[in-house]
Amino acid sequence: MADSYSSGSLGYNGSSPTWNVTSSGPWLLAFMLAAIILVTVCGNLLLIALVFAHRSLRCTSNCFLVSLFLSDLMVALVVMPPAMLNVLCGAWVLWPAFCPIWLCFDVMCCSASILNLCVISLDRYLFIISPLRYKQRMTPPRALLLVGAAWGLAALASFLPIEMKWHSLGHWSRQPAVPGPNEANISAYVDTLYPNSYFQLSPSGGLSFQCRLRVTLPFALVASVLTFFLPSIAICFTYCRILLAARRQAKRVAALSHPPYPHPSLGEPSRPPSSGAVGGLPQQDQDDCSQQEPQGSQNVPPSVNSERRLAHRHGRRALKASLTLGVLLGLFFSTWLPFFITNMAQAVCECVPLALFDAITWLGYCNSTMNPIIYPLFMRDFKRALGKLLPC
Predict the structure, then answer these.
(1) Domain assignment present for 266
(2) What domain range includes position 256?
């Protein structure tokens, strides 16, 4: 995320790392990183276009998904390409003044993606605990307010502290490493072109600089708590409540399949399940945009068979909800938790190897690649829209 490495050189440091074009390794790495960027851009653009093109997808709940896809798209368009140059070239080959701007967008876009995931979990939680009052509670203005709050917090956690240089707090100082009689003049020029708040000398020596957000431990702790750990707690809480609701639903509908009392005869009136709900949950999928599936079929009498079919259908939905939440939480923590742990460790000792930190940073970026794949995979309306667009 923000603590990505990149280096820039004034042009006369022969020991700075360069890309060996005769080796197959850099080309393979370039292909992999370019593929990640391409998939992220195409996936998020496609889903944003689907929401605006299909009326069935234009609902309040999907407003949060559009915000998520937009933040992931910005990660792919603004953050990933310079990060790819960092890895491949080993030098900050772009304009030096662009370094702090890129760092700000890096923090903002990645934080917005995480906070949008938190807002989505909150939206699903509100729908689960009170499905009948959901539309009255989650109105379009309130949805836009939540989206704006997510982006506002992400911007405050990025542009304000980085531009104000709160991340360094004056603790970082550059060691003089410029030899020769003109050392003072060159050092003054270097400090102007490559301020030590955003650049540091490359370990290779000479005048090779890395564009890196070197943060102090207090800043790393505060930023990590605001943009990751607190949202993670909220995501875990809401998804666990959703999972418990799904399990309660499965237990209640199981009673329909195996009642503890004799089933009434066909001639006696039996009490059907409440309309549109089983176990306090609506029969439609969690996404309020989804249309309800056809209930029942021809030649099915209102007897034990129909209740067993109902129980089987909702049992599968409860299982699907459990698997879905497990996949979402697993992917979220497996991609972002290593970065924030490593970022805090780096603030303490600066002992994380360059290649390892690059790999962990790109693992976090890949969350923006997987979001447009995982979330619509479990939503019927998105699958229907994709099926119409891609009939194969």
Answers:
(1) no
(2) 7-261+302-389
- pTM for the whole thing? 0.78
Higher pLDDT, 313 or 100: 100
Q: Which of 76, 129, 375 is nearest to 138 (CA)?
A: 129
**CA separation, residue 214 to residues 5, 165, 234, 265, 379 (Å):** 10, 10, 28, 75, 41
Q: Where are the beta strands (DSSP E) in 111-180?
A: none
CATH number of the structural domain spanning residue 164: 1.20.1070.10
Cα torsion for 54, 55, 56, 58, to the nearest 10°? 100
Interhelix angle for 354-377 vs 80-89, to 10°? 150
Asked if the structure places residue 293 within a domain, the reply is no
DSSP character at residue 55: G
The HSE-up count of residue 50 (CA atoms within 13 Å, CB side) is: 23
pLDDT digits (tens, 9 = 90+) for 49-108: 999 998 889 899 899 999 999 999 999 999 999 999 888 887 777 888 888 899 999 999
